Amino acid sequence: MADGSLESFIENVSGDSHLRVEADLGDGFVRLRSAEAERRQAAHDIRSTEDIVIEMLRNARDAHAKSVFAAVSREGDRRRIVMVDDGDGVPPALHERVFEPRVTSKLDSMHLDKWGVHGRGMALYSIAVNAETARIAASDQGQGASFVVETDLGRVGEKADQSSFPVFERTDTGTVAVRGPKNILRTVCEFALECRRDCTVYLGSVTDVVATLYAFGLSSLTAVARAFGRAEELPVCKRLALAADPAELARIADGLGLGLSERSARRVMDGEIEPLPPLLDRVRIEGDPAEPPDARKQASRTAKDARGLKIAPEDLGDFSDRVVAAYRDIARRYYLEPDVQPEVRVGKDGIRICIPVSKLD
pTM of this prediction? Predict the structure, then answer.
């Protein structure tokens, strides 16, 4: 054989994937050979909470997420990070395996950015090794994901100042310089600015993120989807919109790793807790022209209508009748009582429908 090599023949026929992959795990995930992982640079160094946060953000971006919601909380020496995204998702069979070394979905799409190479299958592994717990709370193929990481700050430290917001300024060369402690806020801000063309990032407390995800789902799901949808069949980022009451909102949130009290859930549903704005809305780059005050006011009016939604009684009655008619089709197929009276509640940020369900005798 020309070139005298069976290896050359196989490579010409099938490419070089067989030389780079130790095992095909299915659904686009592989375990890289050690040599290929080493070729993609050294292992990720996880030395702080901020290192974990940036790796989780890069993971969401590389999964093609357009929206990333980061909830951070601390209790004593325990730090908890929950990252919810609308990216590619992870099949249930691989929820544990993605935390193993050299497992990745980026065989041909490793990413080089300002933080180095991403796509070796070592980021989640390095996080798991250094964290107390690291798991996927919810995810499936094409449904996005919710990752939960808890650390012991005695093992993995973080900046003492976690409240200072970074200062951004335009340099003479046109680049953006950042001042301030390299805390979680700065880490997420730098990522949001660097990857602003890839995704939109939200950052806040657990309750803030729940309120934001709830509004996100209400704005994108149809009334029928909210009435008849099942949480496990919907994208992770939209599941909270299915809640008919605070208890259900708290239950669904807990399934995403976002534990909150029923009282806080009620405040979310009552609109007492505002959804978070995109983090970049808080970033001001010194040296750039200031936005005119009138433009800011107009943007604020566009983003939120304080008057809320008002529906005429006759239109609400007609809508309720249509819901009843749609439900009858489901009731016949599942042997449920078809004659129901749905509860339709109109809030300032959405319409909530609750249908009592009872089986036929």
Answer: 0.71
